[in-house]
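Tokens for chain A. Residues wanted.
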């Protein structure tokens, strides 16, 4: 058990919501998941159970933990009932500004002022999401990454009115349940990690668009190159490792040649126009069979689970 049990409410029972619920239930907290869609709520426990069984298969948890963990996860279609007695509420509904503003205004009315209200928005402004609420000091961004039960990172992002106490309480709770929170100092689009991730994707797509390399080889250059190193050596450490003088010399020469467009690539728009949406349609930048899609999904889950096994074994 990590810290004293605190009731956690998760609003939105989709891909992210059920994973966030699992994290807290596994750490010993009672969790209430709320959704307007009762079918989504019915899927919460089976999905959490399937995730937990995978953790058992890889020796990450004891099978005996499954029933107690599932027992801690309750569901409700009523927001008022779901937040009763909660210490922290995570919102994980669709990425829609008006919907999030409405839910936060409702949560603000329903919850006593000491209850922290957190949004899992991927990219939207925390300040704007909180703008229709009165007690904005207790509203904070907690950006989990997919799949939330396997990716340790959570970005903790203050809006302009968020108190430092809210940031620190959210940070501490996330750390207690085994996540790796990072503090983002300001509410900027893309927060911290998506800014870096999409700077890389913009360049990758631009390289393909300009015929410098094929998509598969762009990925290979990362998977068999600096991607291996990135897991243990971040860019700030790496800049010091090679020397800030060398980093300066490289940037001085190459930055002007890198993609700097503020808009999505025309190659990406062309894919949309052609209906080539990737896994959804079997074709994106590359062609995908059903087996190929399954192989990628299995490869990712296996990699993430083995990462946890390696950490557990020191
Ligand atoms: P999802 O579509 O899987 O689930 C959203 C759920 O919200 C649905 O079950 C829906 O019924 C429910 N919902 C809609 N309106 C509601 C309301 N008024 N009250 C309660 N529930 C309501 O979405 P997701 O992928 O889980 O994303 C949720 C949030 O997390 C979004 O803000 C998204 O940007 C963010 N996020 C997603 C990912 C990702 O990889 N999918 C990663 C990080 C953050």
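Reply:
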């Amino acid at each position: 058990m990590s810290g004293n049990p605190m009731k956690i409410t998760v609003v939105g029972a989709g891909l992210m919501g059920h994973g966030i619920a699992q994290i807290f239930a596994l750490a010993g907290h009672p969790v209430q998941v709320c959704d307007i869609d009762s079918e989504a709520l019915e899927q919460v426990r089976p999905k959490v159970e399937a995730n937990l069984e995978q953790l058992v298969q890889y020796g990450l948890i004891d099978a005996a933990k499954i029933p107690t963990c599932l027992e801690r996860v309750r569901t409700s279609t009523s927001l008022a009932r779901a937040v009763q007695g909660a210490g922290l509420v995570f919102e994980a509904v669709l990425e829609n500004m008006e919907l999030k503003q409405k839910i936060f205004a409702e949560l603000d009315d329903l919850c006593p002022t000491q209850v922290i209200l957190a949004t899992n928005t991927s990219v939207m402004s925390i300040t704007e999401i909180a703008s229709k609420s009165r007690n904005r000091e207790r509203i904070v961004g907690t950006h989990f990454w997919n799949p939330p039960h396997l990716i340790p990172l959570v970005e903790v992002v203050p809006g302009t009115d968020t108190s430092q106490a809210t940031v620190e309480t959210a940070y501490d709770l996330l750390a207690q349940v085994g996540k790796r929170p990072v503090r983002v100092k300001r509410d900027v689009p893309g927060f911290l990690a998506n800014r870096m991730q999409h700077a890389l994707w913009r360049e990758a797509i631009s390289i393909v668009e300009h015929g410098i390399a094929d998509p598969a080889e762009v990925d290979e250059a990362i998977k068999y190159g600096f991607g291996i190193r990135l897991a243990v050596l971040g860019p700030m450490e790496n800049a010091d490792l090679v020397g800030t003088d060398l980093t300066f010399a490289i940037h001085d020469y190459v930055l002007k040649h890198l993609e700097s467009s503020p808009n999505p690539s025309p190659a990406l728009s062309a894919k949309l126009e052609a209906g080539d949406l990737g896994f959804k349609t079997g074709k994106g930048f590359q062609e995908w069979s059903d087996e190929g899609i399954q192989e990628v999904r299995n490869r990712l889950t296996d990699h993430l689970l083995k990462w946890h096994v390696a950490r557990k074994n020191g």
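The beta strands are 8-11, 31-34, 73-76, 88-91, 116-119, 139-144, 153-158, 180-183. The chain has a mean pLDDT of 97.
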